[in-house]
Each structure stands twice: as C-alpha cells, then as structure tokens.
Amino acid sequence: MATTPAPTAAKSPAPPPRSVLRDPAFLRLWAGTTASGLATWALPFVLGLAVLHRDLGAAGLGLVLAARTAGFLAAVTVGGVLADRHSRRAVVLWSALAAAAAAPLLAAGLGRSLALMTFAAALAGAGQGACRPAFQALTAETVEPGQRQQANAAMTMAVRGSTLAGPTLTALLAAFLDVRTLLLAIGALWLVAALAPDQGGAAATADPGAEACARQAAAEAEVTTEQPAKGMAATTAECVTGPSPRIGFRAEFLEGIREARRHPWFLAGLAALIAVIALGYSATSVALPLISRDRYGTEWVLAAAMTAYTVGALGGALVIARLRPRSQGWAAFAGLGAYGVAPLSLMLPVHPVVVVAAYAVAGIGIELFNVPWFTATQREVAPDKLARVSSLDFLVSYGLAPIGLALIAPAIDRFGVTPVLAACAAACFLVPAAAALVPTARHFARTAPAETRRDGSPD
User: Fold this and answer.
1) Three-class SS of residue 56?
2) Which H or E element spans position 29?
3) Please, are residues 47 and 64 in contact by the beta-carbon 8 Å criterion?
4) DSSP track, 110-158
5) DSSP characters for 356-412?
6) Are 398 and 76 in contact (CB under 8 A)?
7) Among 158, 192, 197, 149, which Cα is nearest to 24's?
C-alpha cells in the first residue's frame, strides 16, 4: 500500500539582517570618521577667528591653508599605498596621531611664528590625507558586503553633518574659549579619530576577497589567448595564498592605477567628477558670493544656498541608504549631473528661493552618486588594492578644486559670469551623461547584479 509522505516542515524565513547602526565595530569606525570630519571642517573656521583677533594676517591664513592642502595631496597617495601594504587600522592610527600632533604646534606658532604654523598645517593636511583611503578600506573590512551601502550612507552623513555643525559648534565655543584652546580641541578630535576605530576583520573574515579575486581572474582569463584556464587558476591561487613579495613604492602605486584601469566605470566616474568639481563646483564657489552681493544685495542668499546644499546632501544620503536602483550606475551619474542646476540657477534672474532650491537639489544628487560609488569601489576593486584606488578618487576630488578655483576667477573677469556659468552647467550635464554610456557604467560592475538578471532586463 502506498504511503503518503509526511509533509515537510515549512522553512522559517531568515531573520532580517541586523542594521549596521547596531554593529559596535562600525559605530566605533563611524565615531572616528565623524571626529575627523569635525576636525577637518573646524580648522579653517578657527584660523579665520585668528584673523579676526589679529593673531594671523590674511596672507598668513592663505599660506597656512595652502600648506594644509599641499600636505593632503602629498600624503593621500602615500596613505593609499601604506594602507594596502600594512594594517588599515594602523594607518588610521598613525595618520590621525600626526594630525593631532599638529594642533599644539599650530597653537604654539599662533601670533609668534608663521613658519611653524605653516609646517604644522602641512602636517595636519598630511594626516588627513593619509587616513582618508585607509578609512575607506577599513569600512570594507568592518562591514558585511550587503550592508556597505547603508554604512557608506552613514559615513557620508557624518561628513555632511560635520560640514553643517562644525562651524556652528566652533562659533559657540569661541564665545567661551580662545583660539589656542580651540586649536587644542581640534587636536583632541583627531585623537578620537585615531583611537576610536576597532581593528577591521569581521567582514574580511566572512568575505576575504574571494569574490573580487574571482572576478579579477575571470577578467584576466578573458583577455588571455593561450591557456585561459591555467591563467585563471594561477590568479585565483595568488589571491588565496597572498600577495607576492613586496615591490617598490612607485611600482605599488602603479599597480593601483592598473587596477583602476580594469574598471571602465571607475575611470568614467573620475572623468565626470573632474567636470563637476573643477568646473561646476569651482564656478559656483566663485560666482555665488558675487551674485548674492550684486544681484540680490544680501549675504542671506550665500548662506542659505550653502546650507541648503548640505541639508540636501544629508537627505540624499538618507534616501540612498535604502534605495537600490536597478541600474545604479545610471542613477548615480544622473545624480552627479544634477549639480548642473546650481550654476544654471545663478545664470538666470530668478527669485532667490529658486537658487536655494537648486542648491538643495545639487546636494541630494551628489550623495545619490557618492554612496553607490563608494560601495561599488569596495565591491569591485581587488581588496588588496582598494586603498590605492580610493586614493586616486580623493586625489581627484580634493586636488582639482584649487586648480579650478584658480582658473575660474580669471575666466569670469575675461568672459563674464554668465558665459562661464553656462559652459560649466553644460559640462555638469553632458560629461556625466557621456560617462553613463561607457561599458560597465550602468551597474558600476562588469555584470548586472543577480536580481537584475533574473527579471530578464538586459545588461
């Protein structure tokens, strides 16, 4: 007699993943990033107070801030190589300690030695630059792959919140503390940045880079004409057994450049960032104060527009923490291109509320790009080259802004505000649109995500 098989027990649904905001290791990393952001944005404001108190001249302020930028640019690539060569946690520790050590030197030189202040500012910039790619790589080590977009959104919210709160908190403290004490407080923030993060490794243990290594091996096998399987096996074996013996510093940096070139979407993103930062951002930074003064006759438009940009960026980070577009690369480039509305609004004789709204839209768009961009870099780039590739991103993002500012002002004097803004707005719209047409740009990946392929949509 046939028997009816006993019904199998229904599988209970898997519990939802715990929010990254409840992960102690990530919260410590987030606290360190927040402290470094507050210290970064507070320093120029405190030095500006020193000018008001006549402890520092305007020319001295420019020299000190230029030294900080030079220190950042010199150290960011070095930090990327060191973070791939050594422990990312150690690089964060020592670079943040260097920035912390610069604070008492700045305080000691204030009103006494401009040379000492210039050296200290360069040291602070070097510490800031070296820790940025290390923080980026440490996030990938600390957070599980499925939670990195949420983690990167929380990180960028810390940066934007620091931009908004840093000067305000500094102004409040300035009512009770002198400039030297405020400089020492900035050093204390860098100590928090140095000591707060935990050693990464939870995500590294669960995902030791096998997926990225497999993608790298497959990519290399595609271009190999002889014995592709053997080449793929050799590459995979190298990923598993570890890197080859150390090569020179320059060669390691060039390895990072070669890794970046393996990802067309990354190179396209850098080109789009160049257009938006060197042209769009620089043009609006120069034109907004002029238009606020000459067209609207008030500084309110300048302050409101910059605040709206930061608030919009916070809102964009909140949205993208949960939003998962099917074509995340295209959505990200659309967000980046939205910055073009900022110079566009300054061209036209519109109500000041329109200018403020345009800056809010630009802020939202920039984070709709940044968060997927960081997440894709952490996912697609080989883990042992992540910090070096990230350093290229920061080098472009921070290095081109001063160059753009230096070129935009003479261009406005020669051609006028409106033609320069029109050209920069066009670049902000057109270059990200062209970057979106690059192969692999649609998904910020060589292949579409699994859920996109299952629903039958083309890559």
Assistant:
1) coil
2) helix 24-52
3) yes
4) TTT-HHHHHHHHHHHHHHHHHHHHHHHHHHHHHS-GGGHHHHHHHHHHH
5) HHHHHHHHHHHHHHHHHHHHHHHHHS-GGGHHHHHHHHHHHHHHHHHHHHHHHHHHH
6) yes
7) 197
- Amino acid found at 370: N
Token duo for residue 284: 């609006």
d(CA 373, CA 375): 5
Alpha-carbon distances, residue 65 vs 43, 68, 103, 174, 374 (angstroms) = 9, 5, 14, 20, 27
Q: Please measure the distance between the N-terminal and C-terminal CA atoms of the chain and give it in whole angstroms.
A: 53
**Main-chain phi, psi angles of 328, to 5 degrees:** -65, -30
Cβ atoms of 442 and 329 within 8 Å: the answer is yes
The answer to whether the Cα torsion of 111, 113, 115, 119 is positive or negative is negative
Whole-angstrom CA distances from 406 to 45, 272, 275, 288, 346 are 21, 20, 15, 16, 20
Q: Residue 192 has which token pair?
A: 């928090």
Instruction: Supply the DSSP symbol for 177.
Output: S
**pLDDT at 231 exceeding the cut of 70:** no
Tokens at 141, concatenated: 């080590």
Answer yes or no: is pLDDT of 456 > 90: no
Short-list 263, 283, 310, 267, CA closest to 431: 267
The number of beta carbons lying within 10 Å of the beta carbon of residue 24 is: 8
Helices (H), 143-281: 148-174, 179-195, 202-206, 210-222, 228-241, 249-261, 264-274
Looking at per-residue pLDDT, the higher value among 331 and 52 belongs to 331
Q: What are the pLDDT digits (tens) for 127-139?
A: 999 999 999 899 9
Structure token pair of residue 193: 């940045």
As a whole number of angstroms, the distance between CA 329 and CA 444 comes to 5
The CA-CA-CA angle for residues 131, 337, 159, to 5°, reads: 30
What would the DSSP string read from start to end of 277-323? IIIIIHHHHHHHHHHHHHTS-SSHHHHHHHHHHHHHHHHHHHHHTT-
| Cα angle value 368/335/26 (rounded, 5°) | 15
Category of 247 on φ-ψ map: left (φ > 0), alpha (ψ -120 to 50) or beta: beta
Quote the CA–CA distance of 220 and 445 in Å, as a whole number.
15
pTM for this structure?
A: 0.80
Residue 422 has pLDDT above 90, yes or no: yes
Distance CA 171, CA 169 (A): 5
Tokens at 394, concatenated: 């920061």
Residue 435 near residue 269 (C-beta atoms within 8 A) = yes
